[in-house]
Automatic annotation (TrEMBL):
Residues 27-157 form the Tripartite ATP-independent periplasmic transporters DctQ component domain. It is a multi-pass membrane protein. It comes from the Bacteria. The chain crosses the membrane at residues 12-32, 44-67, 88-113, 133-152. Its main location: membrane. Coiled coil: none annotated. Keywords: Cell inner membrane, Cell membrane, Membrane, Transmembrane, Transmembrane helix, Transport. The lineage of its organism: Bacteria, Pseudomonadati, Deferribacterota, Deferribacteres, Deferribacterales. The keyword Transmembrane helix applies. It comes from Deferribacter autotrophicus. One of its GO terms (cellular component) is plasma membrane. It is found in: Cell inner membrane. Belongs to the TRAP transporter small permease family. This is TRAP transporter small permease subunit.
Length: 167
């Protein structure tokens, strides 16, 4: 079980680091567009659309990394006052009742959404009209890695109930 946790955590750590590089690509695209628009009075047809697609990929692929580092929104007012064992029990219960069903539904629905996009070779409706199906592929992938990280966190909760900690 510890090896599974370390493996999943390592995968999401690498994905998070690789995804963070997109910040620089996004920054370049936005600055390029601003300079073209404000300095040369010649906006591009593609920069805005590319910027929101890059941002979407960055946002999606950061799901698992964010969960691994416990950076999602949480309410610590009550949780922090509970014993480690009770925290672990609460984490497992919320994993089974909320997290697991949500991620499974998200994977299924985004998978269908992605397949429809690929089947129709969907393009955006803008004048640039880039293909959007490659970007929509990231949706089920991101939720899958979120699910994996959730499984890792659930295993950590199980160990917390037993009085052990995995980091």
């Amino acid at each position: 079980m510890r090896k599974i946790v370390k493996f999943i955590d390592a995968i999401n750590e690498v994905i998070g680091k690789i995804t963070s590089i997109l910040v620089f690509v996004l920054l370049f695209v936005v600055v390029f567009e601003v300079v073209r628009r404000k300095v040369f009075n010649s906006p591009t047809m593609w920069a805005f659309e590319l910027s929101y697609m890059l941002y979407a990929v960055m946002f999606l692929m950061g799901f698992g990394y964010t969960l691994k580092h416990k950076m999602h929104i949480g309410i610590d007012v009550i949780y922090s006052r509970l014993s480690k064992k009770t925290q672990g029990i609460l984490e497992l219960i919320t994993f089974v009742i909320f997290f697991l069903p949500f991620t499974l539904v998200a994977i299924k629905s985004t998978w269908t959404f992605m397949l429809q996009s690929w089947q129709g070779l969907e393009h955006s409706q803008s004048p640039w009209a880039p293909p959007v199906y490659p970007f929509k592929t990231f949706m089920p992938i991101a939720f899958f890695f979120l699910l994996l990280q959730g499984i890792s966190e659930a295993i950590k909760s199980f160990y917390k109930i037993k009085g052990e900690e995995i980091e």
